[in-house]
Amino acid sequence: MDVLVFGAGSLGSLIGGLLARSHDVTLVGREPHVGTVEGSGLRVAGAIEELVWPVARTEPPAAADLAVVTVTAGDTPAAAGALADCELSACLSLQNGMGNEATLAEQLDCPVLAGTCTYGARLTAPGVVECTGVGEVVLGARESGHSELADRVGEAFADAGIETTVSDDMPTRLWEKLAVNAAINATTALARVPNGALVDGPARTIAERAARETAAVAREQGVDLADERAAEAALRVAGDTAANHSSMLQDVEDGQRTEIDAINGYVVAQAEDVDVPVNETLAALVRAWEDETARDDSSSAG
Predict the structure, then answer these.
(1) Among 9, 71, 136, 272, which residue is least crowded by beta carbons within 10 Å?
(2) Domain CATH number, residue 222
(3) 28: left (phi over 0), alpha (psi -120 to 50) or beta
(4) Catalytic option among 33, 122, 177, 209
(5) What confidence score (pLDDT) does residue 120 get?
(6) Average pLDDT, the chain
């Protein structure tokens, strides 16, 4: 399969690198990372050790069988615009947050699949991505139901040695992943701790409450997600990726704007008759950090 990975950061580089073991892969990302990969290959380190040679560039090619989108939620409209002129047979979102698939489908002339990913990844240097935890890719149609296209894409992922499940109920899976992200991302970003610190540490209660609140909002939206399933999933992922710095912690460490609006902020925005005080607090604190960082950057630029 000819696969285009749009957003060759930490997760995109890892998934693209693993896919490159069995497929033709093009990574689309930024310099100096893509230039290093093009010249010296991509080294996957950590829990998985590989040296692979995908094509790497800063602009998408003219065509591909599958586009795997791994950009942050705030960059989804730009990704959709960049891919709109690319001849694609299918697109798969492996992004945090909710609503990315709908944004992609509005601009792309191909079927868009929904997906989640619990592999831990971190770029340690240009051309090097560390797998900090082996997880699972779950993918399927955006709405509940069986998809032959999802079967084909899932088979391609499995052929590359990626732990993959094709689901007939992606709406529930997406809300479960949102609960995991709501529990892990903001909590680790604010506490400046790796994921594993949530399993037994003092922040475990905060993470569990954020996940349970998310499940309550999911049920309010018609998705059958039990509180305990959401909390158990969050702790399981935190344990499986114990050494990983969450994507939001990486953003904070790099002084970058986070995906808080698409994660905890989304939970707050969707809640109607459900109280979500933990998600409200986490979202407000991360936004306060973002505002202060933006003011500091503005002062420095001036």
Answers:
(1) 272
(2) 1.10.1040.10
(3) beta
(4) 177
(5) 85
(6) 95
Chain segment 139-160, per-residue pLDDT in tens: 999 999 999 999 999 999 999 9
List 5's β-bridge partners, or say none: 27, 68
Tokens of 47: 């829990």
Does one domain contain both 204 and 121? no
Give exposure, 235-246, as e/b (b: 16+ Cβ within 10 Å): bebbebbbebbb
| 296 a catalytic residue | no
Euclidean distance between CA atoms 302 and 234, whole angstroms: 42
Residues 19 and 100 in one domain: yes
Cα separation, 83 vs 28, whole angstroms: 11
Residues 160 and 224 in one domain: no
Closest CA to 203 of 121, 277, 278: 278
CA gap 100, 112 in Å, rounded: 10
pLDDT band at 51 (very low <50, low <70, confident <90, very high): very high
Q: What digits encode the pLDDT tens for the residues 62-93?
A: 999 999 999 999 999 999 999 999 999 999 99
Is 179 within 8 Å of 228 (Cβ atoms)? no
- Polymer length of the chain: 302
The DSSP letter of residue 225 is -
Place of tokens 């698409």: 262
SS (H, E, C) 114-183: EEEECCEEEEEECCEEEEEECCCEEEEECCCCCCHHHHHHHHHHHHCCCCEEECCCHHHHHHHHHHHHHH
Q: What is the pTM of this model?
A: 0.89
d(Cα 233, Cα 217) in Å, to the nearest integer?
A: 16
Contact in structure between 56 and 8 (CB atoms under 8 Å): yes
pLDDT score, position 170: 96
